[in-house]
Protein: CAP domain-containing protein
Organism: Vibrio japonicus
Amino acid sequence: MKFIPLIALSAVILTGCGGSGGDSNSSDAVSSNGSNTSTGTEGTAPSTGGNSETTGGNSGTADPVSPPASNDFADLMLYAVNQARSQEQNCGGTMMPAVPALTWDYSLESAAYRHSSDMANADFMDHTGSDGSSPGDRIEDTGYVARAWAENVAVGQKDIDAVMAAWMASSGHCKNIMSSSVTEMGASAVENSGTKYGIYWTQVFGRPQ
């Protein structure tokens, strides 16, 4: 019998001063804007209060994305995300317009690596770290001052194409990837062959103050 690995996903969308929440599903999204909080897979990222970014007109595509400069993980992940952002996407029944490309940020990468390493070492998947840290805590600990941020996590997918396909097929994760509230990202994948899931993925998105 062929073994099919368990694939689990989780997403959290938080902006402004942050928030928390979730549900019992393996995929969840949370949004917060001040005192207004909603939970569930239909959570969306609210406006950050400034001028929202637009792609111009009603176009379903943004500027073309250049192929990755190398086969480095960062280049490949950034390319995959920006390819998705360059076209209108259906995120669980919500049409998300094409949005500008993100840039890579090493502080956000550091926050992602910290969480992927933690999940891989302790063999779990959650937005709360084994030390009790939230995504916002981990971002803040790098010195990054965020006006908006979001996090996607997943476990078990073998490569970037597989994890991106899983995230884009999930409403909350797709909305994080397609959010116009963020301008930068970092990501990490950490492997531990002695664990249940084998590989642990984290994407962290942000917009600096």
